């Protein structure tokens, strides 16, 4: 279709699933600080008054999981008993155990040419000319709305906001290009005293207008707390788990997703590092103006140093044949599991900041997979390809 509506959503850092992602990635960061070769597959569950941290970790590091989880929850803003979930009183259960030695056999030395993939996996990356970040517009606006909700809460511009929240953005496309905002949905947890009319007025002014004004029209439909009340939220209202917001973490549904979640996994797990490489390749192809949008899929098998398959889809927007891109990509990018770690300097404690507002389209220098520094090499190799 050339003319259509497309919708993406995001969630705030106080959403239960994002609480879980941040705790899992917080554990990973603490392991890497002490033992960069530690193996981590950390899952978290949050619910009414409790946090369960589980999974498989093999490391020389010692982590105080209880205090780590509580400090993350405090930083997010669950710091009052009336929320029903606060860092002072929750119970933290640690059920972590060591990684299976059968898995460890195939990985070998982390970050070297000999390193095999930590598991099988198919990883997908996507890029589009729709935004300066080379991301789809709906997910970028959804993320920015949730970031703004957190910002006005923490800076006390809207002091009656609570940590949980969601956004949803529907963009109208004409001739396959974003034209205007059709619909904006905001769900903002709040204190019981604030009147609904006041909340809606202030969220429009302080959250929606600064983020979306370029795309707003008189026809844009806006729904803010559409049931009229959102006082009970966070883990009191919904259980949260690591890895349940993979569409939010990636491209808002505009591109495919891989076979596994991202947070809580050290970079030997290609679910994470392979997804970063796939995005890097797609972004460089689009930045090189070889296509208006591009999707990359890479597949791995546990223990092997080379990918099983590489697929390129430019959705009919490519200026060169996709078969040529498949041939040239391995000449420009190191697709080995060790190469992914080396390329992006992934043995650093950078992961908690990836757990909210997307792993892609971010300007932080720690998001090394967002660089477009292979454009020249891509073009040169394509020119010389026989």
3D architecture notes:
The chain is α+β, with helices and mostly antiparallel strands and 386 residues long. Helix content is 32%, strand content 23%. It has 10 helices and 11 strands. The protein has helices at 16-34, 65-76, 101-107, 137-154, 196-212, 246-249, 270-287, 322-332, 337-344, 375-384; strands spanning 4-11, 39-47, 50-58, 91-97, 121-128, 161-174, 177-190, 221-224, 240-241, 293-300, 309-313. The strands form 3 sheets. The chain has a 4-stranded mixed sheet. Helix 1 (16-34) crosses helix 2, helix 4 (137-154) crosses helix 5 and helix 7 (270-287) crosses helix 9. The mean pLDDT is 94.
Primary descriptors:
single chain; 386 residues; alpha+beta; four-stranded mixed beta sheet; 11 strands; flat
Report a brief summary of the structure.
The chain has 386 residues and is α+β, with helices and mostly antiparallel strands. Helix content is 32%, strand content 23%. The strands form three sheets. Strands 1-6-7-8 form a four-stranded mixed β-sheet. A four-stranded mixed β-sheet has the order 4-3-2-9, with helices on one face. The chain has a three-stranded antiparallel β-sheet with strand order 5-10-11.
Arithmetic mean of pLDDT: 94
Radius of gyration: 21 Å
- Along the chain, the helix and strand elements come as EHEEHEHEHEEHEEHHEEHHH
Q: In total, how many beta strands?
A: 11
**Count of helix runs:** 10
Low-confidence stretches: none
Largest sheet: 4 strands, mixed
The helix-and-strand class reads: alpha+beta
* N-to-C CA distance: 35 Å
Portion of residues within helices: 25-40%
**Portion in beta strands:** 15-25%
Output the strand order for the largest sheet: 1-6-7-8
Q: What best-fitting shape do the alpha-carbon axes yield?
A: flat
């Amino acid at each position: 279709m050339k003319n259509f509506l497309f919708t993406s959503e995001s969630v705030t850092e106080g959403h239960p699933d994002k609480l879980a992602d941040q705790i899992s990635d917080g554990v990973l960061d603490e392991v890497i600080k002490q033992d960069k070769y530690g193996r981590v597959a950390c899952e978290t569950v949050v619910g009414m008054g409790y946090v369960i941290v589980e999974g498989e970790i093999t490391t020389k590091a010692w982590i105080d999981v209880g205090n780590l989880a509580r400090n993350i929850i405090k930083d997010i803003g669950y710091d009052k008993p009336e929320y029903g979930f606060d860092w002072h009183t929750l119970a933290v259960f640690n059920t972590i155990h060591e990684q299976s030695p059968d898995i460890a056999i195939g990985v070998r030395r982390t970050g070297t040419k000999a390193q095999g993939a930590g598991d099988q996996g198919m990883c997908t990356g996507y890029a589009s000319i729709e935004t300066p970040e080379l991301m789809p517009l709906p997910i970028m606006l959804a993320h920015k709305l949730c970031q703004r909700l957190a910002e006005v809460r923490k800076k006390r511009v809207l002091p009656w906001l609570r940590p949980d929240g969601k956004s949803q953005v529907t963009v109208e496309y004409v001739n396959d290009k974003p034209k205007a905002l059709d619909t904006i949905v905001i769900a903002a947890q709040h204190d019981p005293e604030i009147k609904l009319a006041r909340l809606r007025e202030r969220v429009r002014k302080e959250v929606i207008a600064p983020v979306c004004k370029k795309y707003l029209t008189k026809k844009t439909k806006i729904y803010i707390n559409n049931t009229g009340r959102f006082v009970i939220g966070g883990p009191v209202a919904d259980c949260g788990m690591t890895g349940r917001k993979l569409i939010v973490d990636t491209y808002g549904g505009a591109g495919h997703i891989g076979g596994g979640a991202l947070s809580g996994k050290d970079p030997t797990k290609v679910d994470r590092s392979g997804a970063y490489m796939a995005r890097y390749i797609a972004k460089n192809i689009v930045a090189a103006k070889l296509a208006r949008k591009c999707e990359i899929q890479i597949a791995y098998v546990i223990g092997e140093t080379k990918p099983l398959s590489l697929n390129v889809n430019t959705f009919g927007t490519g200026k060169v044949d996709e078969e040529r891109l498949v041939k040239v990509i391995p000449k420009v990018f190191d697709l080995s599991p060790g190469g992914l770690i080396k390329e992006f300097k992934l043995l650093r404690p950078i992961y908690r900041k990836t757990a909210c507002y997307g792993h892609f389209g971010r300007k932080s220098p720690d998001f090394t997979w967002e660089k477009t520094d292979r454009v020249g090499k891509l073009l040169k190799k394509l020119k010389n390809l026989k």
